[in-house]
Amino acid sequence: MTVNRTVVILYNEVTPDSSLDDRDVLAQVEVVSRALPVLGYQPLELCFSLSINEIIKTLREIDPLVVFNLTESVEGDGRLIHLATSLLDHLAIPYTGCSNEAMFVTSNKLLTKKILHLAGIATPPWVSLNGFQPGTVIPPGHCIIKSAWEHASNWFTNDSIVYLEPGTMEVKLKERIKNRIQQTGKEFFAEQYIDGREFNISILAGEVLEVPEIIFQNYPEDKFKVVDFRAKWEEKSFEFHHTPRSFDFPESDKPLLEMLRRISRQCWDLFELRGYARVDFRVDREGRPWVLELNTNPCISPDSGFYAAAERSGIPIPQVVKRIIDDTLGKH
After folding, report:
1. pLDDT tens digit sequence for 234-245
2. Which of 266, 279, 251, 260 is nearest to 109 (CA)?
3. Which of 48, 65, 205, 312 has its CA 20 to 30 A from that of 237?
4. What is this structure's pTM?
């Protein structure tokens, strides 16, 4: 009996109008497509869209062993990211990465923050149009108006950071949030800006990989330390050339790095993740880590943080792909 070794690589539709973030999925498709034959699998690429009946028909005809899910949005909207996993659950087809439930929850930054807060994991205080989250207090200072669903490289602009004086906070924040919602038609909230160091911790099948720090190199004192669109995509910009990733730390940072690893693993367990994930932190000037967000099924293109962390950990990309698939199929 021949064992089906077909792995469907499912990814979001890319058009000439797609953002650079959305188009980057094609680099990830290439990474996985090259790795699968090395592992003895037959790759088959399939674009996910709102043509659900066609997707169902195609998947049933292929009947893959597993789907490698790289779907990051649908029609450029991060709010629809869970449609792919919902459909795969409906068809009872195993797929890589986190479950449908975890995908929905972690993709919504507000839901993620509420669960982190209830679990006692520090996340920056926030406010939405429904008011301040019970038990959190935003001190006077700078706040970021953030998208509830999209990555910072898609929504961050110069007016995304607001300075708040005592006594005017809730009114001013809600006014800014309303304005951004009216401008974009998407969901936003406000979060305290944590001035400090930034760490992006990658996890592969439960293993915390080598820890990197984003260095905001030669940033002026009045420039906010945010990895925005320019830092990620505009190769001629100051931000692109002054936000290098470093894996080298002094001995004095060892306790902090261990704390970041422990909290990252705690997040993995709390949200019942699988396959791979990334936990983004800011560490304030007092050395306290704050979880900004969880990125489930993070980018694995060659210039991504996850790819760099795997290389630094001595894990070649074919083995990364293998471990992601094995974690899905229950092979440890």
Report:
1. 888 888 899 999
2. 279
3. 312
4. 0.92
